[in-house]
Design brief:
Layout (H helix, E strand, L loop, with lengths): L1 H38 L5 H12 L21 H4 L14 E13 L23 E13 L2 E12 L12 E3 L5 E12 L2 E11 L10 E12 L4 E13 L16 E16 L2 E14 L4 E4 L15 E11 L2 E9 L10 E9 L2
Antiparallel strand pairs: 1-2, 1-14, 2-3, 3-4, 3-5, 5-6, 6-7, 7-8, 8-9, 9-10, 10-11, 10-12, 12-13, 13-14
Length: 356
């Protein structure tokens, strides 16, 4: 009887010990499982893909002045290198945008100190116009992440008095070339393809706006990334000149060369050499429609045009250098097939300063 009682007590103790061990094991497994889940929790997909997507989009849209053909201007890796900012509610001030763009139209690469732009028609190193520095002061507001509205005030300065300018005048404000701009970061994007652009309106102010109450322009830019660093692009613009009827009468348009429409096309290949340095090679064509003639033709073929309105096709070898997150330098060389020689090759550069 005593033996049976002892065996019963031992068996009960053994079962209790087993139950406690099982509970301990379950608890241990549960703890281990939770640690694994915590440790292997996946990182946000957005963070993982941001760098790759940004590299493909680093080569962005060209900017051009109101009076020259469009010129592809790469933007290198500054925007891509910026770390994502912590999510916070933006104030009115956060959406204000301010920048300064300086566009330099220089001399021949064969005679960089001449102070004159090249003669694109005859192929000489010195033409009729002095070297020029245009300055655009921009103040705008980001209406949404995809749309920024801005006013762009244009100023010009010459190394010497420009033809037709008041004697000795080398600097001035260009009210007719200043404009209101609607800039769209993206119209459409799918895979490696991206389409963006802008819309500009130039009110006919000042003496240069005579008989031209409204001039509008839209830029449409297309890019396709062949690799994360190599892209094909096409930069296009379409302009409409809404002139008064008197602008086209024989007295004001004796040669019938005043235009009402103008279009530019610039296919390009772009290479992101470094995160902060981009290279491009483009071919830029310019076409215009003379209202009284009723024909489309290459702009420079409209004879008897004022020299300032002659736009030649050109090949551009350009680069983009991000000096820091607020300063971008865009030096380039323009080569003109009409006079393809070293003397006619023109050096230029854009400097963009982002203030806000």
């Amino acid at each position: 009887m005593m033996l049976k009682k002892s065996m019963t007590i031992a068996l009960a103790a053994l079962m209790a010990t087993g139950a406690m061990a099982a509970q301990t094991k379950v608890a241990a497994n549960t703890t281990t499982s939770k640690k694994k889940i915590t440790k292997l929790k996946p990182t946000s997909r957005k963070v993982l893909t941001t760098k790759k997507e940004a590299i493909q989009d680093q080569l962005t849209t060209p900017q051009s002045s109101a009076t020259t053909t469009s010129m592809p201007a790469l933007t290198a890796g500054t925007s891509a290198a910026e770390a994502p900012k912590a999510m916070k509610k933006k104030t009115f001030v956060d959406n204000i945008r301010a920048s300064v763009l300086m566009e330099y139209y220089g001399a021949s690469i064969a005679d960089p100190l001449s102070g004159q732009q090249t003669d694109r028609n005859e192929g000489f190193s010195e033409g009729a116009f002095p070297s020029e520095l245009d300055t655009r002061v921009t103040l705008g507001y980001a209406v949404s992440p995809n749309l920024t509205v801005s006013y762009n005030a244009y100023f010009w300065s010459y190394a010497d008095s420009a033809p037709g300018a008041n004697d000795g005048e080398t600097f001035g404000f260009r009210p007719a070339d200043s404009f209101i701009r609607f800039n769209f970061g993206k119209f459409y994007q799918a895979g490696n393809f991206k389409w963006n652009g802008d819309l500009r309106f130039y009110p006919g102010l000042g003496k240069n706006g005579a008989r031209l109450p409204l001039y509008s322009r839209t830029g449409q830019n297309f890019s396709y990334a062949l690799t994360p660093r190599l892209s094909l692009a096409a930069y296009t613009t379409f302009r409409y000149y809404h002139r008064t009827d008197t602008a086209y009468i024989a007295e004001n348009d004796p040669a019938g060369t005043k235009i009402d429409f103008r279009a530019t096309v610039g296919p390009a290949i772009e290479f992101q050499a470094l995160d902060t340095v981009g290279l491009s090679l483009s071919y830029n064509m310019d076409y215009a429609h003379a209202k009284n003639r009723g024909v489309w033709t290459q702009t420079y073929q409209l004879k008897n045009q004022p020299v300032a309105q002659l736009y030649y096709d050109y090949i551009e070898l350009g680069s983009s250098i991000d000096i820091n997150k607020s300063i971008n330098l865009n030096p380039y060389i323009d080569m003109f097939p009409k006079s393809f020689n070293v003397e006619a090759m023109q050096f230029g550069a854009n400097l963009n300063l982002s203030i806000l």
